[in-house]
Structure formats: structure tokens, C-alpha cells
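the two lines:
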Amino acid sequence: MSFLFALPGAVAEGLIWGLMAIGVYISYKILDIADLSVDGAICTGGCVCAMLIAAGVPVWASVLIAFVAGALAGTLTGLLHTALGIPAILAGILTQLMLYTVNLLILGGKSLVAIDHRANTLLLHMSDNPTAIVSAGLIVAATIVVLWLFFYTEVGLTLKSTGDNPDMSRAQGVNVKFNKVLGLAISNGIVALAGALYAQYKGSVSLQDGRGAIVIALAAIYIGLSVSLKIKPNFVVSLIGVVCGGVVYYIIYNFVILLGLKTDYLKMLSAVIVALFLGVPYLKGVLFQKQKPLPIQAVTGGNKDA
Amino acid sequence: MLKVTNLQKTFNPGTVNEKVALCGLNLELKDGEFVTVIGGNGAGKSTLFNAISGVWKPDYGTIEIDGVDVTNMPEHKRAQFLGRVFQDPMKGTSPDMEIAENLAIAARRGTKRKLVWGVRKAERARYKKLLADLDLGLEDRLSSKVGLLSGGQRQAVTLLMATLNKPKLLLLDEHTAALDPKTAAKVLALTERIVRENKLTTLMITHNMKDAITYGNRLIMLYDGNIVVDISGEEKKNLTVQDLLGLFEKASGGEFASDRALLN
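prediction for all of em together
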């Protein structure tokens, strides 16, 4: 029974992390960059949102400014990578570390700041899970629609091609460096937006928030894509899959807690899930590679020769 | 159309791997010239192409395209003047995107990309017609991912992408070398047709001497980072493979035997 009671909370939290996973999907899957700055950006989003709400800024404006703060963090990672030639993974780590200090400064030196959900009308809070699910669901849906439109524009298409084939992109006049910065800005902006929602949901933000967040996002991505790619391998279905992956992850998470596992151990769980999703297909390929006769042509181009 | 002056490039200068790839190369192309480029491995053919496309900056010298000095222009800006097809069929197209999306990205080469719909309806009709002209059965597969196509089909699509917006200069870097002979012949015929119909100024690297003679109206041979043979007009028409081998032997000073295999 208690698992059923925990379910609405798991769905709400899962939706928020699903939104975060959408942000990571943009850098990891579309741009082909493993961007570790998101661990810092999700916390930055929470910090900015919490402090602005405390200062009397309307909640919606605080959330938007949190998005902008995340986008700036992504821009920083992008510039470290493209303008200074630092490998992307290291650029992300550097930004993440810088953001720790930035977040500390935003919180005015405190390690935990509470958001008063009684004094402010928050978009979502754990005391009212049904409303939280609706709010988070609407924001996720709006994000998916905006991204879906964006990635089919002239600019959006070149963002896809930048990650898919940078050589081709440059040859077709695409500014690959600019696109990487733009993509990382959008990615981290969405991650910070998720951070702002998460802080409201919990009613507080801590400097420790976001540690290992990328692993949770990757778990959501792999869980989601393992199903959605089989249904239809297109952009919108993938994004919906990623969000569902986040929800499934949090349902598993809550289930494991009910089994009596300490929450501290759960980082191990997320890491193991990601390791399994990455490792199992590889091992399958190595261990069960059967010799097959070469197909004449996987997909035929009509009845004419190429 | 293209003017390359005193172009120099040395890789890994000051190390044991130092390699002078281009040493003071000069080349001028008139509007509409179709030039085939031959030369052994390490002669500087691809280095010349990379310099023209802006993959890196030359150590010395200038490159002008249609009167514009592009020597210091970054690769993506220079792309507005150039159509490029690479040796590797995987390099010229975006595999995870649709054929129509690839073509649409190419159609906007040299324009400012905006936040408007990336592939419009009217475009699809135009692409469908152009693909039908390729005669590869691709006209009904506009929404297929390019990664599903064969190497020859991908090269044909890349060729279309390179010429969709008439480029000032078309650079073909051994674009049929990775294809089987039958497919290679088909892509070459297609190349010839597109170049002729659009009157494109073209540089085409090839390892096949026969192709170098058959196609184009001018032939240059590179050796050790410089042009050692430059033949055009009637003289080129009457050229034989035997003549070329003789010219190559003369230019290379007896390296004939070692490089012969490469220049079949």
C-alpha cells in the first residue's frame, strides 16, 4: 500500500528529472557531447530560483531567470570548448567546479536555503502531488513542443547535423563552433529550469543538489530510448520516451527505498543502471556475434543500380 | 575564378616528421574550367584542397575565389563559394537525417539561417525532381535517413548537395575512389553531366589516369608540393596514358617504378 501512496510523488519527481534528461539529451544525443556541467547547472537553477522567490520576484519570473542562468553556464562550457580548445568533457568539469563557487555565492554562503511554500504560490510542491504532476507535466509538454518546432527550423536542422557530421556541416557553411555553444546553452538552460522546479518541489535548495544528476539523466535517457526507439525512431517520440524514462526511474527508486535501501546507496543504483545500459549491448555484440551471410543490400534503392 | 599564389604549407615543422606539403604552388583557374588533378601519394593534392576549403591556414601565400581573398576566411564562411565532395562517402552527408533535410541544409549554404521551417513543401518537389534525375531510385525516399543508403547513393546525394546552390568552385577529392567500378563510372558520368549543365568551375582529384584524360578540359599533375605538368585544350584531348606516365617519370626523376602502382 505504502508504495501506491508514494507513486504520485514518484511521478512528479520523475517528470522533473525527465525534463532535466531532455536537456542532457540535447548535449549527449544531439550534439554528441558528454557535458558534465549539468551537475552544476541544475543546482544553479535551484539556487537562482530560491533566492529570487525569497527576494519577492514572481515565481514564474524566477523560473525564467533560472533558465537564463543555466543557459549562461552552458555558454561558458561551450566557449571553454570551442574558443579555448579544451576537450568538451573537461570543459564541462571545469564549469561544474566553477558553478559550485557561483552557487555558494548565490546562496550567500549558506549551504541550504528553504523556499516557503505557504508564503508563496509555487508552481509545484510535494505537499500537493496531483497539482505538481499537472504543473510539471504542462511544463514538460511545452518544452517538448518548443524543441520539436525549433529542431525543424533552418537553425535547428544545422544543430542536428553539427552533432551528426561536423565535416558535412562545415562544408555546407554551418558554424559548428557557434552551434555547439548554442546547443549547450539550450541544454543547460533546460537543466536549470528543471533545477528550479525541483527546488520548489522539495521546498529547499542545497549545495549538494545535482551531484550525480547527469547519471540520473542518462539512466532516464537509456530507459526511455530502449522503448521509444522500438516504437518510432523520431525526435518527439524520443523526447517523450526520455521523460517517461525519468518517471520509470523514480518509480524504481521509490520501490527500492520501500525495500529498505538507504537513500545514500541509491547513487550506486543510478550508476549501475547506466553501466548496464551501456555495457550490456556492447557485451552482447562481443559474445553473441554470429556469423551471418552478408546481405546483398540492406535497403534496396529501387530496382536500379546505385 | 580561382587564384592560388605562392602557396606554402609544412606539416610538423621542426620535428622529425616535418613534411613540406606545398612549396610555393601557383594555380589560376578560368571560369568554367574543369581541371583534373593527378599525382602520387603525398604530392599535395589533398593538401591543396584543404587549403582552398580552409581546413587550416597556409603558412604563406594567398587564395582568391572570384576576386575575393579568402586566405583568412574560416572554413564555414568560405563554404558559400565552394561545393565539396569527399573521398569518404560517409563524410559528405548527415547519416541520421533525412535525404530532404540534408539537401535543405545544403540549399541554404551561404545564406543566413533563420528560425523558419527548415524544409518547405515547395522544396520537397524540387528535390524529388533532382533526385529523379540521378536515376538511383531515390526520388520516393525523401524521408529516408541517409545512413540507409549505399556508398554510391550517398556520393550522388553529396554531389547534388554540393551543386544545389551553384558553387563558384566545385572540389571533388577522389570522390569515386571508395566505390566499386560500376558505381564509380555512374557517379563520374553524373558528375560530368552536372558540371556541364551548370558550367561549373571544377577541380577533380583522381588516381585514375584514364579518367583524368577523359574528363575535363585541363589536367595538372602535382609532384612534391608543386604543379609539374599543366596541359589543356587540344593537347589534353590527344593525351594518352602512356604520355602521362612518361611525363610523370620525367617530373619525378625516375621514381616511376615505385609510384606506378598508384597511378594505374
